[in-house]
């Protein structure tokens, strides 16, 4: 991989903040966009724009073709069986809320249980809590060890005859743990229970094959994989999606409507009420084409090298403690230095041009498990370099010495 050449595709990476070159290490929150993604949006607005699926006219048909071709690009990217299994949403959060509502309506009754892990992002916890409050279901939590690995025997013990669903992050946004989702799915299936995988932090960094994983539902956000904001994906096996009721009502999701009765559209449109973000889906497809052209295996290998280098550099800093030491980790490093508050560390690093995340990272129950308020998080993407890791390490040293 020619990283310098790749960096040229991302105009924002050459800007300065506070007179310093930007070192952008907040990729877990959102990634920067290559020129081809922004160009795709501009091109579509300037030369194709029309509402999809509705018009007989030329532009509408062209916009529809682009939108549906994007669905095929997503299908190929995660290796789904059919485009009927690809639902466009606003992002991971909306995908999970959709599922919590629809799966809850169809399959959850008072006293039923949902299993989730201690390291879930609030997006994969709060929708289930809302559902729990509405329908009287129980939530059971998979614990982890101090290295940040989920305890598999405890997981197995959580299953009861009332377990209806397992919800699980593929990669933790705080600890970087890559959970053994394939094995955990196989176990759940052995108990007759489907699994939702939150792929927000995996799709940008690892090759994902939903059929090889045998995931029943898999969700991710476009903006974390170099695509635009406001577009995401819910993958669901057709056999499940077919059995779920619609989410929102409106145009597009219907087949016929009278005042007495409405029949619903087929998959995937049943779940896509209203005008979709068709420009966003085109741009998401460009982003997936972009990373596919580099190769997800290559990206994963490069980020692994970079994270290993960063781990080594950071570990050498006196008083620095890394949170999350699982045997398989993604490109995320959460850390604390002595008793320096993460917010102070983040603010001072920012003044050096280094963008990191600080706080609870939308995972407050995980912070409670770790007995801390928050961490500083550096999260890497395909355009980050060892030189940037050096700037980070030197920056942390500088802040440490100030305290
Ligand atoms: N799940 C995980 C693991 C995340 O890291 C995030 C975002 O940080 C989300 C869900 C929510 O994603 P979004 O805000 O794009 O819906």
Structural account:
The protein has 403 residues and is of the alpha/beta class. It folds into 2 domains: 3-30 and 295-402, Alpha-Beta Complex (Aspartate Aminotransferase, domain 1), CATH 3.90.1150; 39-293, 3-Layer(aba) Sandwich (Aspartate Aminotransferase, domain 2), CATH 3.40.640.10. Helix content is 40%, strand content 17%. The chain contains 14 helices and 17 strands. Strands 4-10-9-8-7-5-6 form a 7-stranded mixed β-sheet, with helices on both faces. A hairpin with an 8-residue loop joins strand 13 (320-323) and strand 14 (332-337). The longest helix has 21 residues, at 58-78. It is globular. The structure holds pyridoxal-5'-phosphate. Residues 28-29, 91-93, 121, 123-124, 169, 173, 198, 200-201, 221 line the site of pyridoxal-5'-phosphate.
